[in-house]
Amino acid sequence: MSRETEYDLCIIGGGAAGLVTAAGAAALGANVILIEKNKLGGDCLYTGCVPSKALVHSANVAYGVKTAKQAGLSARLTAVKQSKVMQRVADVIKRIEPNDSPERFRAMGVEIVFSEAAFIDGETLSAGERTITARHFVLATGSRQAIPDIVGLETIDYFTHETIFNIKENIAHLIILGGGPIACELGQSFSRLGSTVSIIARSGILPREDNDMSTVVQQQFEAEGIALYSNTDVSQVIKTEQGLAVQLNDAEMTTIEGSHLLIATGRKANVEGLGLAQAGVVIEDGRLKLDGRLRTTNRHIFACGDVAGPYLFTHMAEHQAGIVLRNTLFRLPVKSQTKGIPWCTFTSPELARVGLSEQEARTQGIRHHVYSFPFDEIDRAITDDQTAGMAKIIISPRGKILGACIVGPRAGELIAEYALAMSAGLKLSALSKTIHVYPTLAQLNRRVADQRLKAGLTPSRKKWMKRLFGLRGQS
């Protein structure tokens, strides 16, 4: 900086990335100011992770009642009032809200300012009537729903994930545009809570995952009566007396009529209105140009969270916040992790992955082996009547774990063992040697790892072992 500055760190955005950065910096003794235009907590608390998982829980409870007969029980689900479910969602948010309150962060020593913010130049930020200088600035402005360009969409009062949790009446027929995690989680939830649901997915549901894994989720959707329209685009949306009609760009020019529409077709970074051009920050294709240290083209301005990308996860935002702190406060040239990032789609069954998929390994020409094991051979999955799905691992010829994917119950919890193994550089044999509690779903991780050992027991090798150790069993 060319002149004396007021703060060590100025953070723009009070979502997960901004709050973790602010808390960490204050704990380390830095003079920190955080600028937020709305409420602290951001997308994760109010419109993302927290409300969606609260909704998923209520939906799963409803489904449990509907399928109680499978557990030898007699139960009946009366008419669901979705507004009451949303009230519970709001209550969950209120329980977590104090963790992100201004009072809590001010008590930590973080100065909080509620205002719009924009750079005046590369060293100065304007926030309301204030002019702020800092040694470093951090962009943590998040992302928002990307709205597709569809004929007639402007005539419809549609939902996004930012508005759907505010419903006051039941949704009769929800049409969803998009096939990613948000579309799938909300679609299945509303279906289980009594809505008719139609999902229109250009490339099928969960297209980032291997087809054999996403198909398990798709089969469950179809079994629950969710209508899926894949490999097609929407040509137009028409407002009707009952709600709306969506016309597909397929050979039959299919028309789907519904009461409400949810847009879940991807997200875009919040980079507008920040005066980034005046600050010398370059934007390419709607995203910040960043180096491996999460530094923009202005070396005093960093970014973390959804606005930084490419992974739009709260746990990634927390990781990136740590990278920013080490670079800005300690001046250590630490780079953000881009490999071995775990994630989970919280459908039922859940679908979680870390590292390479089988398709990615094949596309990149990486030598690999694939092993899998089904949930229907895991005793705990059988006792819990949750046998759909499997675990699949991708390893190098020498046993290095390149990736793992699990589709089934508690996949988001089970994937952590593979994430740890990959982070620690452990080979697959380490999972085979680890004792897992019986009966738990986690035994799946050991059983799939054992498949590599079994694959190595070729007939000739078994014959050699029989001779060497004097074994008398059948070959």
How would you explain this protein's 3D organization?
The N and C termini lie far apart (75 Å). The chain has 14 helices and 23 strands. α3 packs across α4 and α3 (49-66) runs parallel beside α6 (181-192). The strands form six sheets. Strands 1, 2, 3, 4, 5, 6 and 18 form a seven-stranded mixed β-sheet that branches. A five-stranded antiparallel β-sheet has the order 19-20-23-22-21, with helices on both faces. It has a four-stranded parallel β-sheet with strand order 10-9-8-14, with helices on one face. It is globular, with a radius of gyration of 25 Å. It is of the alpha/beta class and 475 residues long.
Could you list some keywords that capture this structure?
single chain; 475 residues; alpha/beta; FAD/NAD(P)-binding domain; Enolase-like, domain 1; 3 domains; seven-stranded mixed sheet; five-stranded antiparallel sheet; 14 helices; globular
Q: What is the CATH topology descriptor of the largest domain?
A: FAD/NAD(P)-binding domain
Tell me the fraction of residues in β-strands, as a range.
Answer: 15-25%
**End-to-end separation:** 75 Å
* Form type: globular
- The CATH architecture designation of the largest domain is 3-Layer(bba) Sandwich
By secondary-structure content and strand pairing, the structural class works out as alpha/beta
Number of helices: 14
CATH class of the largest domain: Alpha Beta
Helical amount among residues, as a percent range? 25-40%
**Uncertain residue ranges:** none
Short description:
The protein has 475 residues and is α/β, with parallel strands linked by helices.
